[in-house]
Known about the structure:
Layout: E1 2-4, E2 10-18, H1 25-37, E3 41-44, E4 59-61, H2 63-67, H3 72-76, H4 85-94, E5 99-103, E6 107-109, E7 120-126, E8 130-131, E9 163-167, E10 170-176, H5 183-188, E11 201-203, E12 207-208, E13 215-219, H6 237-251, E14 256-265, H7 272-294, H8 305-318, H9 326-339
Amino acid sequence: MTTTNEAGSAGKGAVVLTSIAAPNAVMRKIAADCTRLDMPFFVIGDTKSPADFSLDGCRFLGYEAQLDLPYATARLCPTRHYARKNIGYLLAIEGGADFIVETDDDNMPSDDFYRPLPATASVATLAGTGWVNVYRYYTDQLIWPRGLPLDAVQQPLPDLGPERQVPVPIQQGLADDNPDVDAIYRLTLPLPFSFERRLRVALGAGAWCPYNSQNTIYHRQAFPLLYLPAYCSFRMTDIWRSFVAQRIAWANGWSILFREATVRQDRNDHSLMKDFADEISGYLGNRRIGEILDALDLPAGEANIPAAMRLCYAALAEGGFVGKEELPLLDAWLADLASR
């Protein structure tokens, strides 16, 4: 797809999701949209995916087909884990994508879902604020993103700075109806929920907020940071990825952009108590992870992103947040990227 973004520049996009389901309404909608937009659409399966998966307008790869790819990542990544989505990113990159749009199979997209903002945009900014509950800029109601330290949920909201031009190669869209919130919210507060305001907020150095993998766009310069860790809880893989990406973004003078909702989620069935159990490592560790990453002396420059990622994940492994097995898998990802 060649999409003209708000700045008038053009780029080729691709959509990536992972699923163990048969084609559903969301996947059919994305496939139809991508066919209309001439945009590649990759669905990455796993060992539990239906053997007869078939959907016009998408390229589906089951587990066995993934092993035939020339990616070390496909062979080292554990099965039955969300991190197999990494294989879809590699396929999109090899296909020449300038930006990658990622989502899950329960997020119904709007037209704006496929349209990135420019990699440099004029937006309201924050920096140096510590943890920020970004969702509160979009609503007066109590809500917070999955992964936000619980003691930051009701901290005073910093005033937004003036709009200015900032590099924003990573862009998080919100979700209406069933936003990305943690199990504590789901167990205690009402849903569905829709955000009342449409705005864009960029978080620069020292302004922390988790983002997810459900409605996120990465421009080419940020592609290495798509990497999802596999040796941690399923509920934390995209959250901890976001912390690593934020820290490395700041080393490069980038900000993380949050934008209005561009999907509506009809959430797949979950056991909320299982989600709660899988999120405990985050409830207890997310603030500490930020401190560990803050303390690192990371090299600047796009060419040094792989080295910075190794430093970040080595620190998380040393802290016991990811398994030691994460480091060879990360090296495989970086080698696969370098060969594309």
